């Protein structure tokens, strides 16, 4: 008992010390009162459920959903991000009262209110937050026009109203916000022409107006020398190609009415990485120099009327990953440099290619080029070519690269406020990058530490895309000795990369025709599945059909952990080779942490992982890693799951919290079975065995210490502390509760296991070096 109290005190003290070092600010009580009114006004969203009158707002840990940042005794940043796809707040919600409450926090500089179901018009009085620098109210249901009062926000740097129902024309005064650098109004119902005043925004770095109803010519942006991202997709803009500064990195003009030829200067935009001119009416010669832009990775000019002859000896940029020239009037030969490691789509032209079926006769292009007529859609293609050689590092490679870069930006900037971890392609890089431009004062205020930082550096290479050649080399061309298993989704191979590291390669075969873009979101999620206690994702590779570049197979590469599975270490070896009690607890904690990461470390969380002790692998240092978990890709591919499962997979992005919680509790139960086996040190192969063992354990818990200990694997009985065994058994029983609601949260599980480990190291091995002990205390914090 004394051990128990001692360690409890140690833990408590550490917590207190930690809190007092890091969170000494005391919030003005009036500001605290204001925050406390927010949950009720928003109909008590689950993300705010932990706020109550004793919450110390300046010291709550920032999460992906909620972050409060204080400076001295006032609040400077408030981020509340609800669950994706949340529905309208109820009828009694009032945007007016909500904003009236918010403006009682006049020190706010950064305000994010995303995916909360807010509806109504945006009250002008929000401008009373006169220090606002960043305002982000995306993914809600706000309508009407942007209130004129916002024009008084002279410090506003970033205005994001994406994915709402705002309408009307863009106000002229937007052009007079002196320091505006990000204007993002995607997916609204704005109409009218773009005001010329926008061309005064010299600090503008990101202008994102995609998916609205804008029409008319784009103003002259040649003075916007800082503009890096211009996205105008899916409007009615045109016909003249916009005048732009040459610092542009992303230019998206697709799905508009641009017609006139491309300006020669375009070839001098040396920073251009992503160019999408597809689905317009562009005419005139296609400048092959676009292929050779030094930074270009993505070039899409599909479905226009570009003319001209291509030569095999033309040169292209090394960076180029994806080129779509399809459905134009091009003749000649595809440049050699476009092969082989790039995705190239060229159907519907008059090129001389291997697969002539996808091309028109040259006369067609000539006639069409001469005529100013309509080009008949030429989508009919005969059967699928069996050549499947082209690898799409493609767009996705770019995205993943961007993820890595974003992480880098996070590291450099360190204390940037953004709780939003990863966002939609393709502007993410720049949007995040723009945060590097926050004034340094703001950065000092921010105490947010990104998830990346908290997780600590993984000793792994960065996530990346692989080429098919690399995969073939690693598996010796899928040699049978490399084959390690098969599931309904495809085969698994073991492979060795050039650098000598071992990987597991999952090969998923497509049953239907999808473009690589379809998987962008899933790949983004997968690229985040990296944690000390997971067999982490290392990369992917697309194999595409040559004719329509749809995906034929996806390869996913994971860390290969090779020191035996957890069952072999606790239940199958000779007694002396088994893990001791301390090591077992460490392994259990590892699994729980891996599970916690899957549930809460990434957004959206990954649930229903069907955790099994044989799918937990130990590495050379006996660090436990979950090697099989629910991949957010599988349902997409097969589309043939029983509905419950399919739901769990496909709904990953828009899961309602109650359901997520239910699925989390299923994982907790599976974890309970693993823990049970760790305790008793015997393989539990069937549900009956588990139930029987559970009953025995239940009885033992109620009994005395000796009985309890007799339940523990003989091999480790002597080395285990009484308190530690008791705590472990108790939490195990709670995990195995029949009623999901009564099962503990993963945090609760972790706390108890860490407590058990703490009791163990305090009581049993006072002479052993305090290192383990120390680490535990740290990890509890
Ligand atoms: C709206 O009504 C619900 C119950 O009908 C209540 O829980 C909620 O607090 C109300 N919200 C406001 C802002 O009054
Ligand atoms: C406030 O919430 C915390 C946990 O979030 C809880 O421990 C505490 O009891 C609550 N206090 C009140 C007064 O409800
Ligand atoms: C823009 O939309 C509003 C309603 O949303 C409408 O009243 C107005 O006429 C439209 N303007 C133009 C130029 O289409
Ligand atoms: C490329 O080839 C064409 C003819 O095939 C030739 O006219 C042209 O000069 C060549 N260009 C270069 C840069 O070699
Ligand atoms: C606004 O916030 C949402 C939610 O965090 C985020 O996804 C989005 O990228 C933000 N927009 C900008 C322009 O920063």
TrEMBL record:
GO terms for molecular function: ATP binding; protein kinase activity. Pfam families: LRR_1, PK_Tyr_Ser-Thr. It is found in: Cell membrane. Keywords: Cell membrane, Glycoprotein, Leucine-rich repeat, Membrane, Receptor, Repeat, Signal, Transmembrane, Transmembrane helix. The chain crosses the membrane at residues 389-413. The keyword Protein biosynthesis does not apply. GO terms for cellular component: plasma membrane. It comes from the Eukaryota. This is Protein kinase domain-containing protein. Belongs to the RLP family. InterPro entries: Kinase-like_dom_sf, Leu-rich_rpt, LRR_dom_sf, Prot_kinase_dom, Ser-Thr/Tyr_kinase_cat_dom. It comes from Linum tenue. Residues 478-755 form the Protein kinase domain. Residues 1-24 form the signal peptide. Coiled coil: none annotated. It is a single-pass type I membrane protein.
